[in-house]
Amino acid sequence: MAWSESGAWLAGTENAPLYADLLQDAADAPRRNAGRRKILKPSDMPWEMSRQGLLKHLINEDMNTRMETVDAYMQIIPAGSRSGKHRHLAEECLYVVEGRGYDLHQDCDVEITDTYHWKPQDEVKRFEWEAGDVIYVPPNTIHQHFNADPHRPARLISAINRIYKHSGLNDLEQIEDAPEYDPSVVLDAEKIRGYLRAG
Fold first, then answer.
1. pLDDT at 169 over 90
2. 164-183 mean pLDDT
3. Pfam families recorded for this chain (predicted)?
4. Which of 9, 106, 123, 137 could lock 92 by a disulfide, CB 3.0 to 4.6 Å apart?
5. How far is Cα 21 from Cα 182, in angstroms, rounded to an integer?
6. Residue 136 has pLDDT above 90, yes or no
7. Average pLDDT over every residue of 125-134
8. 84-123 pLDDT tens trace
């Protein structure tokens, strides 16, 4: 036989219908998607008291929607408070629904090999925002949102592409927790109203 590497590539006895599975997955997509929601009501959107702060999830991979690539949540920052501080490899954009405040962003030098290695740069940049603005968070930037109004809450809508996660690049690190974070808290409308009145 002319193929000199045949001794190596002919080895192995395992069989698997991997391509057939891909074809079946594609064929099943219309039926599968027909069972996924295109419309979500507020009651379908779960609250979370997270380390990043008070969140109402609008779209999430675990919510059985047709959205394949984007996760989005609404973040409520009580008067005079702040979000958690975190860093993730994916870029993010946030729309300021109401309120005014500022972000602190710290770029990082990153190296991706078998593991992630990142080092914060010295400079911390401040960006002011108000209702109607869009905040852009570059990839791998340490960031935190601050509500500058001592009397009124701020609301932000965050959108992030989950393709990073599916590409094995879900590098997410929480550096500081939001002041309101308490894993024992169960959120509902009345509890949220209490946070909105705070300050």
1. no
2. 90
3. Cupin_2 (PF07883)
4. 137
5. 43
6. yes
7. 98
8. 999 998 999 999 999 999 999 999 998 878 877 889 999 9
Mean pLDDT of 53-64: 95
Rounded Cα distance between 161 and 16, Å, is: 32
For the record, the structure tokens of 138 come out as 């570059």
pLDDT computed for residue 100 by the predictor: 98
Rounded to whole angstroms, the Cα distance separating 16 from 20 reads 9
Judge contact between 117 and 110, C-beta under 8 A: yes
* Cβ atoms of 108 and 87 closer than 8 Å: yes
Cα–Cα distance for residue pair 20/25, rounded to 1 Å: 9
Measured CA to CA, the distance from residue 58 to residue 72 in angstroms comes to: 5
Residues pairing with 107 in the sheet: 141
Q: How far apart are CA 39 and CA 62, in angstroms?
A: 15
Asked whether residue 161 carries a pLDDT value surpassing 60, the answer given is yes
Helix (H, G, I), strand (E, B) or coil at 41: coil
Residues 57/48, Cβ–Cβ less than 8 Å: yes
DSSP conformation letters of 127-152: EEEETT-EEEE-TTEEEEEEE--SSS
User: Which residue has tokens 């000199």?
Assistant: 4
Give the span between the Cα atoms of 74 and 185, in whole angstroms.
18
Domains along the sequence of the chain with CATH: 41-197 (2.60.120.10)
Convert the pLDDT of each residue in 69-93 to its tens digit: 999 999 999 999 999 999 998 999 9
Q: What does the block give as tokens for 56?
A: 């109402």
| Type of residue numbered 194 | G
